[in-house]
């Protein structure tokens, strides 16, 4: 396992993926972020593809940071949280912006976690933290492997702690992780920035 992370010096971005049970998990995670939390957080939550989402507004009520839904070419701002919109993959284009994509769904999902994680790994490499939470799919396994190959850090919610264990269990079997944590442990690390 890598040593404790110093948010101010070691991490340029955080990517998060969640599916079934993700709304509750993300409410807790975003509620744990202190107001002075600096790394930008980019999130894919599996959403219904053909209707608007209010997830950024709903979860933003629990977060001390600005929370918004991404637009194409949206700037990545420090100290903010960005959600992929329904029916678009969110890709990290460069260190300053994201792009939205209508590429084919991944494992029936668009947005999907794998494209976000893989594109972020290509840009941020060893300065990326990827967090995979609850879900009933294998989306996220390939992306987590890409993060680790690039030297980034992977945290996976302990399958026994997840509402839906399939996603974290599949990712651990396929890609492994630097840390396997309960949701509360992840939240505590966010609060402590370590």
Automatic annotation (TrEMBL):
One GO MF term: phosphorelay response regulator activity
Catalytic activity: [protein]-L-glutamate 5-O-methyl ester + H2O = L-glutamyl-[protein] + methanol + H(+)
Active site: 19, 46, 139
Gene3D superfamilies for this protein: Methylesterase CheB, C-terminal domain
Xref: InterPro entries: CheB_C (IPR035909), Sig_transdc_resp-reg_Me-estase (IPR000673)
Keyword check for Hydrolase: yes
One BP term from GO: chemotaxis
EC number, as in UniProt: 3.1.1.61
UniProt entry tagged with the keyword Membrane: no
Signal peptide positions (record): none
GO cellular component, one term: cytoplasm
Keywords linked to the UniProt accession: Chemotaxis, Hydrolase
Domain CheB-type methylesterase, first and last residues per copy: 14-194
Pfam short name (any one): CheB_methylest
PROSITE patterns from the UniProt entry: CHEB
Coiled coil: none
Protein name per its UniProtKB record: protein-glutamate methylesterase
């Amino acid at each position: 396992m890598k040593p404790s992370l110093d948010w101010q010096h070691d991490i340029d971005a955080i990517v998060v993926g969640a599916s079934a049970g993700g709304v509750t998990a993300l409410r807790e995670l975003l509620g744990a972020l202190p107001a002075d939390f600096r790394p930008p957080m980019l999130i894919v939550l599996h959403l219904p593809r053909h209707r608007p989402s209010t997830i950024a507004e709903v979860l933003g009520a629990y977060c001390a940071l600005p929370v918004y839904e991404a637009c194409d070419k949206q700037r990545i701002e420090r100290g903010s949280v960005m959600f992929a919109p329904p029916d678009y993959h969110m890709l990290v284009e460069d260190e300053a912006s994201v792009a939205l994509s209508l590429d084919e769904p991944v494992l029936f999902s668009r947005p999907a976690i794998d494209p976000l994680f893989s594109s972020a790994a290509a840009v941020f490499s060893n300065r990326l933290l990827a967090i995979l939470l609850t879900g009933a799919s294998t989306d996220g396994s390939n992306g987590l492997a890409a993060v680790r190959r690039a030297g980034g850090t992977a945290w996976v919610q302990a399958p026994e702690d997840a509402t839906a264990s399939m996603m974290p269990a599949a990712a651990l079997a396929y890609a492994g992780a630097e840390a396997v944590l309960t949701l509360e442990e992840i939240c505590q690390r966010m609060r402590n920035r370590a």
